[in-house]
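As the next step, I wrote out a protein sequence along with its fold in C-alpha cell form, included below for the reader:
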Amino acid sequence: MVEPHTTTTVAAANATTTTRFGILGCAGIARKVSRAITLSPNSTLHAIGSRSIEKARTYATANGFPSSTKIYGSYDEVLDDPEIDAVYIPLPTSLHLHWVVRAAEKKKHVLVEKPPALNVKELDVILNACEVNGVQFMDGTMWMHHPRTKIMADFLGNSQLFGQLKAVQSSFTFSADSEFLENDIRVKPDLDALGALGDAGWYCIRACLWAANYELPKFVTALRNPIKNSVGVLLSVDASLHWEDGKVATFHCSFLSNLTMDITAIGTKGTLRVNDFIIPYKEAEASFSTVSEAWFTDMDLEWNRKPSEHIVSADLPQEALLVKEFSALVDAIKHGGALAPENKWPTLSRKTQLIIDAVVASIDKGFLPVEVVY
C-alpha cells in the first residue's frame, strides 16, 4: 500500500562475491554501464574489447576505466579470457544473435542491450543457447530495477486503491538532431532495422506489459501513418494492445518529438502517473503520483482529491542496481546455489519482443490487428 506524500529510501546491501565483466565494443551506452559495473558492490570491470586495440585503449582511458582493466583488440579475446564470468554486449542489434550465442557457448553469462534481437525467432535462438549452456540472460532495461518500479507495482496490485486495470498509456520520445537522423546506428537498416520501435518502443511496450502484470494482449494493432526514413527505418510509430477482458494500452515512440518518458495507468478506483520512468529526473531519487477515488466537489468546481507525490530514493543508480541483480544471479549459478539460471528475465524479454514483432506485422498487413501467440 502506498501512502500519500511518502519518501522511501532503499539501501544497497553489502556483497561478498564479485562477478568479473568483459565488455564487447565501445558503444556510447557502455559508458553508463561500465560506470554501473564499478559502482555495483558485487561486480568488477575486468576487460574491454573492440575491433582494434587502439580504440579499446582510447575508450578505456577516456572513460576512467580501472588501471587493472584488460584491453583486447577483438571480441573473441574477451570471450576467451578464462577469468571473465559475464559479458555486457552493447553492439548493434543485428550483431546480437552472433555474439550472444558465441558468448553463451563460451559459458559467459550475458547482459545485452535492448532490443536483444531483431525478432522473436532470433531471440529464441539466443535464449536457447543461454539455456543449453547454463548461463544467465538479461536485457538492459534499467528502469525495471529501480525500487520505484516495485513500489508502483504494489499500488497497481492494490485492489482497494487502484482496483482493476482498464487502460495504459506510455510514451518515449526525443527530438533527434540531423546528425543522429543521418548517421546513428538506430536509423541504419543493416544495424538496427527496428529503429524507433526497437529503441524507444521497447520501453513503452515493457511499461504496458508491466502495468498488466505481464499478461500478453490478445491482439496488437499498429496505428496508421508511421514515419519512416528514406531507407525504411521507423522514426515514429504508435500502436495499441488489446486484452480479452477489455483493457487496452496505447504507446507512442518517436525520434521526432520532444523528450517524454511517461506512463499513465488507469484503474477502476485509482490512477498512477510517472513522467520519467526510463531515466529519472534525478539520479538519486525518483517520483510518481497516485490518486484514488477522485471526483468533483459541489457544482463540479474542483477535484475532491488531488494526486499525491511519492519519492523513492536509492543508494545506487538504477543501472548499478541492474548490474547488482544480474551479478547476484551469476554468483548463485557459479557457487551452486541456483540449479538453473533465473527464467524471469528471458521471459520478459521474449514477451516484449513478441509485441515488437506484432507491431511490425500489423504495419506490413496494412494496420490490421495481429494476434499475439506466446
Observations:
- The two ends are 32 Å apart (CA to CA).
- DSSP finds ten helices and 17 strands in the chain.
- Confidence is low (pLDDT under 50) at residues 1-15.
- The domain at 15-141+328-339 is CATH 3.40.50.720 (Rossmann fold).
